[in-house]
Amino acid sequence: MATIKEVAAKTGLSPTTVSRVINNHPYVDPKKRKLVMTAMEELGYVPNSSARRLRGQRTNTIAVIISRIVNPFFGHLVDAMEKIAAERGYQLILCDSRLEKDREMQHLELLKTKQVDGIILASLQNRWKDIEPYTRYGPIISCNEYDSAADMPMIVCDQEYGGYIGTKHLIDRGHEKIAYAGGTDRIELTRDRFSGFKRAMAEAGLTVNEDYLFPSFYGIEDGKNIFHRMYAMENRPTAIFAGGDEVAAGVIQEAKRFHCRVPDDLAVVGFDNQPLADLIDPGITTIDQPMKLMGTRAMEMMVDMIRHNRDVTYKKELLPLQLIVREST
Amino acid sequence: MATIKEVAAKTGLSPTTVSRVINNHPYVDPKKRKLVMTAMEELGYVPNSSARRLRGQRTNTIAVIISRIVNPFFGHLVDAMEKIAAERGYQLILCDSRLEKDREMQHLELLKTKQVDGIILASLQNRWKDIEPYTRYGPIISCNEYDSAADMPMIVCDQEYGGYIGTKHLIDRGHEKIAYAGGTDRIELTRDRFSGFKRAMAEAGLTVNEDYLFPSFYGIEDGKNIFHRMYAMENRPTAIFAGGDEVAAGVIQEAKRFHCRVPDDLAVVGFDNQPLADLIDPGITTIDQPMKLMGTRAMEMMVDMIRHNRDVTYKKELLPLQLIVREST
DNA sequence: AAAGATGCTGAAATCGATTTCAATATCAGG
DNA sequence: CCTGATATTGAAATCGATTTCAGCATCTTT
């Protein structure tokens, strides 16, 4: 309620001097500094941040665009980001695209309208050509998802490698009829993962059965459905590589319900290494993604870019993926 | 980059008229409206939101304070909130208190410094007397957690009842030596839940064994630890009521590892009814909390209070809890 | 034809800070 | 005693919008 003017009036000084006190500028008489401090205290004065934003052209706010906060993967990612942001004095605006292109574009407007200083894209529903125009309004970096056409800093994992090691592991276990439930096109991340799958298959001289490919799904229910679709086949696959631990968990749960033994009748590999992968029985063999590291690194980069006003540039950074073997294979 | 003045200059009109076009005011000549629109388009003009905030004294932003975003419970809560907020044209600032009092207080400052129009408290680390002073800066409501001393709108579940039905269920199954892992003091929510536990015990003429009480824990690892502490007792409890599904899951996993049969040797009740409660084997008997409803309702209230500038008031709203019986009991 | 209502427009004030610029005071060095 | 550096201060401009108020047409109504 109290403004800088009122503080000035109360102390008999000018707003300029009060501002100097607020911002710890040198050249303020120590006595007057103290005087201003107590006046601020008494009036319960706090600087209005809208005014500061307008004058300073900075918001100290960063937007994070994700696709589904209910996915624990993003929960961990956001958690790591929030931690760094808070340390550095930035707030986080949480933007959930809910996998919709339009919402994502709307969220990008935040940068244009100067509501945030930068944007971290952890969801990528749109093409680079649609995103590119926004880069002139402030830093945008991608984290987790990516688009090789894009000219922006990225913190990503080598998904092709992930797809490869997961598949290779199943092949090493003797499987030949391997299903894949992870999406095959649309998003580059899933496409690369699928490439890894195909590479491993080709290397082993195995052919990819079109009937064994399931479009991209995300939740437990999707996993259950996929199991049933496989179960209904006359020539069933003996293993499945799922695009996420939740899908894998759904497959496993339903398999158990129908007395299909895991891993003997059906081996399952997940992705992400979420806590639940270790919890259910059998534990899910999965690909560990360093979520914490990704989030931390992305936010560090972002803050650095904002602080140095783009004269720092980053390239693509590739983080390691790792196979975690449990009982489901 | 372009300002309203530049649009005005380009069209030969005044900033006032341009502003009218932007805000869809009546009394603008349709021709000039169109003229302004195309000029804005050509200049790539977008209103600067810091300026609007300053002048309008609104931010269209709401802060949500939670304790741990990695907890899927909060993930769902935030998801529901974000959905309503987006529909109504508000942004969400995610504040993670990480269970620390100080962080929570810092986040409350957002309201004072006019960075947000209102705050939803889904975490409550501080006492009402510390929070109360902030209410004069804007609406604050609590969601999930609560403090009966507090005079603010609340959306909460009847935790005493939750504690009661969970315990009653175990008693009905014939258990007498029942452990409780949910916190017994500190936060009112957990205290009430514990009261429900005690009421059910007393009603059945059972005494509460101090050794069977475990202080408040949150994660899977905590559940594992608790199992071991129980396992080491000479007079082991035959059932445990855990403060969350994750804790319950940890207990169950470790029990299985040590060949302690669930529910025969140890019955387990969780809390929250998270997806994982249905996923692990055996499924966890738990108390369903309507997270989606809580989040939705809280955000609806918040927006309503902001829009009507506090001349609407809400009271405490109690949402239903429900026992979900699965195989762990 | 006068009075009043309605439509359209812009100059200037305002929101609450920060920054630029100039003014003044004080002090050291030559 | 003069010059130049170093402290200390405030008036006024600025950030980019919205709002108030007043002015002037044009159109009804009596």
From TrEMBL, chains A, B:
Which PROSITE patterns does this UniProt record tie to the protein?
Answer: HTH_LACI_2 (PS50932)
Q: Where is the HTH lacI-type domain?
A: 2-56
Q: Which GO terms describe its molecular function?
A: DNA-binding transcription factor activity; transcription cis-regulatory region binding
Q: Which UniProt keywords apply?
A: DNA-binding, Transcription, Transcription regulation
- UniProt cross-references to InterPro entries, sorted A to Z: HTH_LacI, LacI/GalR-like_sensor, Lambda_DNA-bd_dom_sf, Peripla_BP_I
Q: Under what name is this protein listed?
A: LacI family transcriptional regulator
Q: Which organism is it from?
A: Alkalicoccus luteus
